[in-house]
Amino acid sequence: MLSTLDPTPAAFALSKLKTTMSETFDAFFADLAVLRRHFRQNPELSLHEFKTQAFVRNYLVHQAHIPAEQIQDCGKTGASPLILSRSTRIVGLVVDILGPTEGPKPAESALTCVAFRGDMDALPMTEKNPHLPYESQSTGVAHMCGHDGHTANLMGFATLVQQRRHFLPPQSIVRLLFQPAEEGYFGTIRHGCLDGVDEVYGYHNWPFPLGNIQVKVGPLMAHGSTFSITISGPGGHGSAPHVTKDPIVAAGQLIGAIQTITSRSLSPHDAAIVSIGQVHGGEADNVIPSSVKLSGTIRDFSPTVESTINQRLETLVKHTCAAFGLEGKLEISDMYAVVVNPDRQANIIREIGMSVVGADRVSDNGLPVCAGEDFTSNDLNPHVSYVNLLVERSPVAELP
């Protein structure tokens, strides 16, 4: 993968590497399961992955036998050190595995540094799976988006590459990015960790049939933003609604109106979603509150569609609230850009995937998806590629 821009030698090299380690896979994957369950039991929120970082570093040095000097805090890879606003420490890791120093100098067109990324943070949720012996031990924090698996897999990948680094082209680097804060804070992946990187690859496990790989050229995951709406006006006793400006009734009307944005304001060829996830209002059964708050998410694949949705949302909030004599306030916060796979990198993944799991298990079925991801080519690297590995048979629980 590192020695040429032609994907065929890349597939050959990966196939050769796969053959050399096939006999140890069963035991190796059992060890990865233990790692994954450790993280599942000990989740940490974005920008607070202190114990996770320390555990990963200790494993890489003592189990994967990667020299400590090749493991750095994320943001200290030659660029200006990253300062995190929500933490006094840098909680990501950049790991460089070095190819042989002896050998021919790489051609000018050759890839000399390829990066692979795994995110480490959990979600502010309480896990309720008491039947699992590895259920989260932290109330209000849980790995409900699969990052425990991503971290464990990247640790396993580090072990395999370090053991077989003699297969790498001379003077090449495989860089591993253990990213904190993927869930809404954009982590540290943009802050110097990709300096000198020619290509970068990421993946997400996905709740569909086991052992399949989904990848496609072009848009893969949606642009995402969040919105919050506050409807306010005079409340009062429920026995005298005529002296109030009931924000609950207005909220009900607004919720219905918002559903018309995608069905009536967009072409059926434009994929987009506007979903309300929270509604909060009132504290007593017999009191009409003075405010109601709604919040939700917007997903789309086009700046034009995004603009239409935002404008329609603003219009609906303003005029629906005014019709009830209430004031409406709308706030929209941009989050993830669209994840777009370049042709060459996506085709490399497809070719290697077919050699590993078979051609019938590699497809673009169901893609793109409206889940969001901060692993975006617009802000990271022109040669970013992303893939979904399908690992479960259960419904989607929590995606960013």
Automatic annotation (TrEMBL):
Pfam families: M20_dimer, Peptidase_M20
Domain Peptidase M20 dimerisation: 226-319
Keyword Transcription regulation in record: no
One of the record's GO molecular function terms: hydrolase activity
Recorded superkingdom: Eukaryota
Cofactor binding note: The Mn(2+) ion enhances activity.
UniProt entry tagged with the keyword Magnesium: no
InterPro entries in alphabetical order: Amidohydrolase, Bact_exopeptidase_dim_dom, Peptidase_M20, Peptidase_M20_dimer
Record keywords: Hydrolase, Manganese, Metal-binding
Cofactor(s) listed in the protein's UniProt record: Mn(2+)
UniProt-annotated binding residues for Mn(2+): C145, H147, E183, H204
UniProt family annotation: Belongs to the peptidase M20 family.
Protein name listed in UniProt: Peptidase M20 dimerisation domain-containing protein
Organism, as annotated: Aphanomyces euteiches
